[in-house]
Every structure is written in C-alpha cells, then in structure tokens.
Specification:
The chain is mainly alpha-helical. The protein has a domain of 101 residues. It has a two-stranded antiparallel sheet with strand order 1-2.
Length: 184
C-alpha cells in the first residue's frame, strides 16, 4: 500500500508510522537495497520520518489556516456593516471631490446618462405589455371586480356541551302518540 492510495490523511500518516515501527522491529541493524541505492535502517527510518514530519506539519498548517479563516470571517461579519456605512458617509460628504474620494479608493456615484425618447417609449411599451401578460390591474379596477355567490347556507359550529343529568321524569309512553302508527 503506497501513501498516495490511502483514503485519508490520517490513514496515510498511520501507514508511514507503521512502516517506521515495522522497519525498526524487523530490521534493527542492517542495510536494504532498493534499485541501485542501499539504505541502512537508520537512513530509511530517517527518510520515512521526514515524510511523517511533513504530513504532520501540513495537518497543523491546514488546521491553523481553518482557524484563521474562521476568525477572519467573524471579524469581517462584524466590520463589513460599519465599512458600508462609512463608505456611504464618505460618498455623501465628498460627492463632488473626486481626488478626495480617490484617497479612500472610492469612485463618485455615476450619474445615469439621459435617456432618449425612443428608450423611454420602449420602456413604457414593455411595461404595458408586461401588465397585459400578467393580468395586473390598478387598485380602482380591482375594486370593481366582485363575485356572485348563491345557494350557500351558513351553519354555525358550536362546541358540544357535556350532557347534564335530567331531574325530570321521562314522559309516559301512552301520553305521546307515535307519529309512525295510524290511529282509528
């Protein structure tokens, strides 16, 4: 397994450290030849330790960069509104003084170029076409739009009340005629 095929930086560092430990355990004294180069155990361990140190330094630097970025973003979140307000103040204060605004690295507000009659007519036509396409109307026209509703019965909804025990006796069956039976 090579360093570049490891899935994470932590796995790659663990792999290099395992190579160092295994080399020191199984080849405590001796020399190894790879290609045309002969390495002693100490020189091979030193070479591998250099890779380990570089990976560790990279991890520390990346972590420091993350913390620095987070700190920078926090400060910018607090300061950016103040900067925007200050720039507006400077624009209003030195609106006609271009060299002074340049000292603050600001440019004066651009005055829009006067529009031609054709441009104004095209804008008005586009606005009318958009109103027609969307079906939008004015406030007075909306007031004239009403709907007709017929055949609706409104039934009030009330909360059911709990049943009260009745103190009156039930009526006798003989005194109330049954509407479903015919009497002769």
């Amino acid at each position: 397994m090579s360093i570049s095929t490891s899935k994470t930086k932590a796995e790659a560092l663990a792999h290099v450290l395992a190579l160092i430990a295994g080399t020191q355990k199984h080849f405590p004294n001796g020399s190894l030849t790879f290609g045309n180069i002969t390495y002693t155990t100490a020189s091979l361990v030193a070479l591998l330790q250099g890779v380990s140190d570089a990976m560790t330094a990279l991890n520390v630097a990346e972590l420091a960069a993350k913390h620095a970025l987070a700190a920078s973003q926090g400060v910018q979140a607090q300061v950016n509104p103040v900067i925007q307000i200050y720039e507006r103040f400077l624009q209003a204060t030195f609106a006609n003084t271009v060299p002074t605004l340049a000292d603050f690295d600001l440019a004066p507000h651009k005055v829009p170029a006067p529009r031609t009659v054709e441009q104004k007519a095209a804008t008005a036509a586009k606005a009318r076409a958009t109103r027609v396409a969307r079906g939008t109307t004015s406030k007075k026209q909306k007031l004239t739009v009403t709907g007709n509703v017929t055949g609706i019965t409104i039934t009030p909804v009330t909360a059911p009340t709990p049943a009260q025990p009745s103190a009156q006796p039930a009526p006798a069956a003989s005194s109330v005629p049954n509407p479903g039976t015919a009497t002769k």
